[in-house]
Amino acid sequence: MRSLRLSVRNAGVSGAALVGLFLSGPGFGAEGSAPPVSKQTQECLNCHSQYHPALVQDWTHSLHSGITPEEALKKKPRERRVSSETIPDSLKSVVVGCYECHSLNATNHQDSFLHFDFRINVVVSPADCQVCHAVEAREFSSSKKAHAVGNLEKNPVFHTMMDSITSRASVKDGKVVSLGATDQSRNETCLGCHGSHVEVAGTRTNKTDLGDVVVPRLANWPNQGVGRVNPDGSRGACTACHARHVFSIEVARKPFTCSQCHKGPDVPAWEVYAESKHGNIFHSKEREWTWDRVPWRAGQDFGAPTCAACHSSLVTSPEGDVIAPRTHDFGSRLWVRLFGLPYTHPQPANGDTSIIRNKDGQPLPTAFTGEPASEFLIDAKERARRQGIMKGVCSACHSRDWVEGHFDKLAHTIQETDGMTAAATGILQRAWDLGLADKSNPFDEPIERRWMKQWLYYANSIRLGSAMVSADHASFENGWFDLTTGLSEMQEWVDAQAGTKPSGGK
Asked: What's the pLDDT at 348?
């Protein structure tokens, strides 16, 4: 390590001086004082402040750099960001720095390597974060997000849909021919949000001023998918929402983070929210809100709900009464799954949806005719409990009549759009029965893709438009107009191909 320090110092500006500049930045330490940094992290900073200055700058603005876990545990229970009751002695009295995160559980990390004098893991996983954030890691581990990769890969229907969507194509003899999906196309599309398997695939040598550094070569990396499978076998990526290395709660709470994945045309949550009344208030007033306070006080710290307020954050009244408890299972307040294949249904009881089997033995939460696979879905009591929490969030600002009226309208919208999906499914079934399409892959032929749009684009847009009150998305922006038009076009196509008179014609 001595040669490393000398090399850095000889570069013109000492590593210590650079680190000093960074550590004097805003947010580092209480009242300008620097809390204790471990000697291992200090060695990391001496070098990386030169090679990755922005990374170090981010860390110095983080809460990790400004307080020790021991001090964090002294905060009032509702104000804590640390949920583990006990912290290892080696970690509790120093700030959470480079070494404290990248050295944990090394024996479980296939990506662990000897980096100068230290054993370092390339990927920091939820299994590492849980040393201090045990409750959050446990909640996340049972969520659909944590199982996002398996829910695609282990479900042959979903996997077929993914490959059909991401498949390359060419024209041969006047016909469009599928060339199939590739790992690259999957990783750049569906798995970009869901995540994939990060695995060690040998080593590579980096040439540096300090000499050759041999590091693990990772397959499917970089990767920030929310459900990725890490080299230590854990699932998920905390950094999908809490961007490294600042891990800002403000970043995680703002809707921009959710918009990385939850956007149209299939899940247009961001676009719907942005054009809603709540989105208008957010865009107009976000600079006046207090984004980093825990707990988050409705009407005082923020003036309109965001994704986090409804789905995750600990929300209280200005007086401190709990409106919604904190959760890192982002579906745990949801009673209905608006995104269905192809119908809506009660939320799954388990985040691993690949275990679901409908009445026909398919790995789907509903049958092709709409009946739910109730054994694998939450029951009426749990649905009522969850809906009560969401109504409580709404009731922080709205009257009971307003809230009840809103939820009633959403229930009617769900019923009506499922009815339209059933009608489209009936038309597709007729096409299969007539031999106009091959149902071995229900996603790859023109009439099947038209059917997909009915529920994947239009019905989803309508339901989200109803849930978040964005009238245009419920009507013209992939809404009712397109849903109705699409149904007519499906029927006309099947009639034309079958050589029959159009339905309703004379």
From this structure: 97
Residue 88: count other Cβ atoms within 10 Å of its Cβ.
12
Same domain flag for 78 and 15: yes
Residues 6+ apart with CB under 8 A from 281: 303, 304
Which ranges of 198-254 would DSSP assign to H, the alpha helix?
249-253
Distance between CA atoms of 129 and 237, rounded to whole angstroms?
10
Burial 447-464 (b: 16+ CB within 10 A, else e): bbebbbbbbbbbbbbbbb
| CA dist., res. 350 & res. 141, Å (int) | 11
**Residue 382 located in a structural domain:** no
User: Strand ranges (DSSP E) for 274-425?
Assistant: 296-297, 315-316, 322-324, 336-337, 345-346
CA–centroid distance for 225 within its chain? 7
Q: Are residues 28 and 53 in the same domain?
A: yes
Among 216, 9, 210, which Cα is nearest to 119's?
216
**DSSP SS3 for 11:** coil
Q: Which domain holds residue 139?
A: 125-240
Angle between helices 15-23 and 39-51 (to 10 degrees): 100
Read off the tokens for 375: 């054994």
Identify the pLDDT of residue 11.
38
Strand partners, 120: 113
Letter for the amino acid at 110? Q
Q: Do β-strands 322-324 and 315-316 pair in parallel, antiparallel, or remain unpaired?
A: antiparallel
Over the stretch 182-194, which tens digit does the pLDDT of each residue have? 888 888 899 999 9
* Parallel, antiparallel or unpaired: strands 296-297 and 315-316: parallel
* Percent above pLDDT 90 for the chain: 83
Question: What's the pTM?
Answer: 0.89
- The pLDDT value recorded for residue 501 is 53
Rounded distance, CA 500 to CA 430, Å?
13
The pair of structure tokens assigned to 47 is 């070098």
Residues of the chain with pLDDT under 50: 1-18, 21-22, 24-31, 504-506
Residue 434 in domain: no
Classify residue 292: in a domain, yes or no: yes
Q: b/e string for 223-256 if b means 16 or more Cβ within 10 A?
A: bbbbbbbbbbebbbbbbbbbbebbbbbeebbbbe
pLDDT at site 169 = 78
